[in-house]
Amino acid sequence: DVKVTQSSRYLVKRTGEKVFLECVQDMDHENMFWYRQDPGLGLRLIYFSYDVKMKEKGDIPEGYSVSREKKERFSLILESASTNQTSMYLCASSGPGTGTRETQYFGPGTRLLVL
Amino acid sequence: GEDVEQSLFLSVREGDSSVINCTYTDSSSTYLYWYKQEPGAGLQLLTYIFSNMDMKQDQRLTVLLNKKDKHLSLRIADTQTGDSAIYFCAETEGSARQLTFGSGTQLTVLP
What is the pLDDT of residue B95? Predict the structure, then answer.
């Protein structure tokens, strides 16, 4: 089975702190994604990556950065957390060999509260 | 850009069938997906359908695709309380690696 893990289920941070959210997948997937999920807004894509050291902006990249130094790991960074970044953050991965190559598999999510 | 729309809420009685509907605008969609999200969890892939298919059945789940009307539906037979969740429709165009998601339908199963 595809497994996508996220470093924390719940996180509480203060405004202005630097926050790291880690995501690891074990299926050798080439593509990885970070979304945020807010009530009534569905999933919004923040950043994605097609390969190691590659990154592409999604729909709402402002206030975020990402890092992909290894194929299995994709990190989301909040350089200076703000209260409007309180949200559920979901990581996903996709690649050949699992259903369609575009099928995305999700981690359990990290619920971030910024005070 | 592409758009995927779903109604926000659906309530059904336990044992009845549920039908969750989705419309999309991208005429070049190749795959369409249904995901389920239980409270506090990530999204779980339920099923997907290729755009040249009309129907796909998997146990209690039936997916119907009307490509002409760009309408996708998910039917859950004999709905149980464990089916209460948010259901997301998503689509992708063949050369793209991203999925476009709907806003999700909250299914509530009443006893």
Answer: 63
Q: Are A36 and A90 in contact (CB under 8 A)?
A: yes
Chain A residues 41-70 with CB within 8 Å of chain B: 41-43, 45, 48, 50, 58
Q: Where are the beta strands (DSSP E) in B1-111?
A: 4-6, 9-13, 18-24, 29-37, 43-50, 55-58, 61-66, 71-76, 85-93, 100-101, 105-110
* Chain B residues near residue A107 by CB distance under 8 angstroms: 42
Query: Using the beta-carbon criterion (under 8 Å), do A42 and B102 form an inter-chain contact?
Result: yes
What is the C-alpha to C-alpha distance for residues B55 and A80, in angstroms, rounded to an integer? 48
Identify which has the larger pLDDT, B97 or A11.
A11
Contacts of A72 (CB under 8 A, 6+ apart): A24, A25, A26, A28
- Tell me whether A95 touches chain B (CB under 8 Å): no
- Tell me the C-alpha distance between A48 and A85, whole Å: 18
Q: What is the pLDDT of residues A38-85, one digit of tens each?
A: 988 889 999 999 999 999 999 999 999 999 999 999 999 999 999 999
Of B41, B99, B101, the CB nearest to A102: B99
Pairwise CA distance, residues A101 & A94, whole Å: 6
Q: Cβ of B8: how many Cβ atoms within 10 Å?
A: 13
The answer to whether A102 contacts B92, with C-beta atoms less than 8 Å apart, is: yes
* Per-residue tokens: A94: 């996709």
| Interface membership of A104 toward B (CB under 8 Å) | yes
Token pair for B42:
């990530």
